[in-house]
Design goal:
There is one protein chain. By secondary structure, the protein is α/β, with parallel strands linked by helices. The protein has helices at 10-20, 35-45, 61-66, 82-91, 102-115, 119-129, 133-136, 180-186, 231-241, and strands spanning 2-6, 27-32, 49-53, 73-78, 95-97, 138-143, 146-151, 155-161, 164-169, 172-176, 192-196, 199-202, 206-211, 217-221, 226-229. The chain folds into two domains: 2-131, Rossmann fold, CATH 3.40.50; 137-241, Beta Barrel (OB fold (Dihydrolipoamide Acetyltransferase, E2P)). It is built from nine helices and 15 strands. The strands form four sheets. It has a five-stranded parallel beta sheet with strand order 2-1-3-4-5, with helices on both faces. The N and C termini lie far apart (59 Å). 35% of the residues are buried.
Length: 243
Amino acid sequence: MKVIIIDDEPLARSIVKEYLQNVQDAQLVAECSDGFEGLKAIQQQQPDLIFLDVQMPKINGFEMLELIENPPAVIFTTAFDEYAIKAFELNAVDYLLKPFSKNRFEKAVQKYLNQQNNSAAVERTIETAAESPSQQNRVVVKDGNKIKIIPVHQIHFLEAADDYVKIVSNDGSFLKKRTMSFFEKSLAQFQFVRVHRSFLVNTQLITRIDAYEKDSHLLLLTTGEKIPVSKSGYSKLKEVLGI
């Protein structure tokens, strides 16, 4: 069983490492102090299980997981965070609340061995965690071998692209493997509106709404981009803009 520990606190890593020595067949293949290192190690080592801290500098644990196509089984380690705890408990993913005992650690590992955490549970956990205010003011994407953090206010619009969503921002466009529904929910408070089945737009950038073909309209953004608006999208838009 290949294991990776990802935590920015050296003491927390050493405790997990110590407890892990008593787990039969567990092989620690990497220790990482942030999400950037963690992502690289997961891609290289393809672990069976990771111990992942939630609150880390640069990118947090949830944001790191979003960048992995098929995340491994996860046991989260965290200080108290109501959104994180809610995400874990709703989706039956195990977590260790710091500070945790050896006995609690062993129970979490046994749960993994018995149930084999599945990627669907991790996906649901990420979606639940997206309700956290700390998760909503930026979007983290992969740009080649680099990781880019895009502040929400810099996003022009999002466009459906098969299994991905294309995020068009001040710095160009990037693909992220999430659904339009995910972003529609998480960006609603920033006045992003689903104006079309394939488009979610930053209403702060709308400069004009023109009638187009039958029952449809065309948005012109301050950036010069033109976005199609469906009949139902136009109704949503009028409601948000108060027109």
